[in-house]
Amino acid sequence: MRKIGIPEIEDIALGAALLGAGGGGDPYVGKLIAIGAVQECGPVTILDPDEVPDDALVVPIAMMGAPTVLCEKAIGGEEYKTLYETVSAFYGKPIYAFMPIEAGGVNSMLPIAAAARLGLPLVDCDGMGRAFPELQMVTFTIGGGSATPMAMVDEKGNSCIFRTVTNKWTEEMARAVTMACGGSVSVSLYAMEGRFMKEYGVHGIVTRSETLGSAIRKVKEVSDKTPEEAFLEITEGYKLFQGKICDVLRDVRNGFNFGKVLLDGIGDDKGRSAYVEFQNENLTAVVDGKLLATTPDLICLVDIETFIPVPTDALKYGKRVMVVGLKCFPLWRTEAGLKLVGPRYFGVDTDYIPLEERCKGGC
């Protein structure tokens, strides 16, 4: 048990933006929401999963929709209370703690803001260890957990709660409501008891985000390595490519950001070309026609000077980036995990091959 204040939020937002693999929303917007809540209501208590009673009700809080929309359609401030009251009334008992559903610039921050404003603790655990674009894509689905009853509320005060027969149906129905509400809503789903969260959650995600964020911020202070070497060491990352963005093809449809970023090589990669495709999060990285990384491994673009992660909605012509691959949470590499988030689910015509195997002999 410890407290999260503004310095910790700064590092968590930075580290979670890396783990968001390009998705999860703008870390700056999310950070402002969390900092504002902590300034008004005080620091948040963060709990290790093992500190949560087995029968306690733990509820993830998140934003659903296209991350670009949230930059223009902000959160109103009353959404957390509405979600709390709706879920508590349904289960007939109070919520013990909030938790993030994924790592990402916004969805790592909203649970902190909700916990601060409602005086609840935050659990150091999530359901992805990164970010994914669809609601059923969580480790809790692998464990047989249900996404519903799911509560949704928009900034105007519209709210609903519904149940579905599968988590995929939750995604389909919730996406339709999200579009009707303008492209983004606040949601609470996968309410669970502490024992289930301990068994199927990704433990330590908030702490890992904070550690990564702090290390990225101090990467140029490492004396015995270049900043790039230090960054790759602390993240355990694989350098896939370094280049200048020469084009970004982007489309918002069905509540998702779809697109492709094209890169011309610079430095050691001069004369080569690459592209990264995304659906909110980065899905594939291809260099000179060779597929070097696919979901569920993390594909991240970072600024070559600062190593600050660049989310998909911030990609722009001329920016110089390094494409980095990170290994995913082990449960995603199982048969059940790949059925949910493997490359073929996203229409990529290849079997999953772990990042470290694709990069054998150099990327």
Report on this model:
This protein has 363 residues and is of the alpha+beta class. The protein folds into 2 domains: 2-206, CV3147-like domain (CV3147-like fold, 3-Layer(aba) Sandwich); 231-358, no CATH class. It contains 12 helices and 18 strands. The protein has helices spanning 6-19, 27-41, 67-70, 79-91, 110-118, 139-142, 167-180, 194-200, 205-217, 227-235, 335-341, 355-358, and strands at residues 2-4, 44-47, 57-65, 97-100, 122-123, 125-126, 150-153, 159-162, 184-188, 192-193, 202-203, 238-253, 256-265, 273-279, 281-287, 290-294, 298-303, 320-326.
Secondary-structure map:
Blueprint: E1 2-4, H1 6-19, H2 27-41, E2 44-47, E3 57-65, H3 67-70, H4 79-91, E4 97-100, H5 110-118, E5 122-123, E6 125-126, H6 139-142, E7 150-153, E8 159-162, H7 167-180, E9 184-188, E10 192-193, H8 194-200, E11 202-203, H9 205-217, H10 227-235, E12 238-253, E13 256-265, E14 273-279, E15 281-287, E16 290-294, E17 298-303, E18 320-326, H11 335-341, H12 355-358
Parallel strand pairs: 2-5, 3-4
Antiparallel strand pairs: 1-2, 3-9, 3-10, 6-11, 7-8, 7-9, 12-13, 12-18, 13-14, 14-15, 15-16, 17-18
